[in-house]
Design goal:
Blueprint lengths: L1 H15 L3 E6 L10 E4 L1 H6 L4 H17 L3 E2 L5 E17 L22 E17 L5 E10 L7 H13 L8
Helix pairs in contact: 3-4
């Protein structure tokens, strides 16, 4: 029973865990000059995810760019694209031979015992957000976020919005 509660807590914690983010940028660029953006359609069209998830990402990017003071334009300063990658993670949980457990035991209450093994899988998604100078066509900033996401999640809009928010939190970079 104790192990079942622990497993349920762990699954809830993993599904709600935050996104691990990393960003990199061209240090020679003056980011204060950028005021407008548009999406880099050729890159986005290549992304192998559902159109629904693409729209979720674009909606979240619209929101975050507006918060940062950038507006969408037909003649943008920046082009924004994104790519994704998914990796199936396999977890093997081995129960120990201490305490209560399933399996054989040396007394009527199964103290000791053979333990148990459980296998679970989780998809870890990576979202790359690429910000390109529209004039030079050079990548000037890239953010990457990794975290758990499932096609069966009921709150996909919120989870994808969290991914985007956490990634672009570091845009524009603070230059010392």
């Amino acid at each position: 029973m104790k192990n079942t509660i622990l497993l349920i807590f762990l699954l809830i914690f993993i599904s709600c865990s935050s996104v691990k983010v990393y960003s990199d940028y061209d240090q020679s660029v003056d980011f204060s000059k950028y005021k407008t953006f548009a999406y880099f359609k050729p890159e986005i069209d290549k992304v192998d995810i559902s159109d629904l998830d693409k729209r979720r990402i674009l909606k979240a990017l619209d929101n975050e760019m507006n918060i940062k003071g950038l507006t969408k334009s037909e003649t943008p300063d920046l082009l924004i694209g994104f790519t994704t990658k998914a990796k199936e993670q396999i977890y093997v949980n081995s129960g120990n031979n201490l305490g209560w457990g399933w399996g054989w035991g040396w007394n009527p209450w199964f103290w000791g015992g053979g333990g148990y093994n459980s296998v679970s899988t989780r998809t870890e998604g990576t979202l790359y957000i690429n910000i390109i100078d529209a004039l030079t066509k050079q990548l000037v900033w890239q953010g990457k976020g990794k975290g758990g996401i499932s096609e069966f999640m009921k709150n996909r809009d919120e989870r994808i919005a969290l991914f985007v928010e956490e990634i672009v939190q570091n845009y524009p970079p603070e230059i010392d």
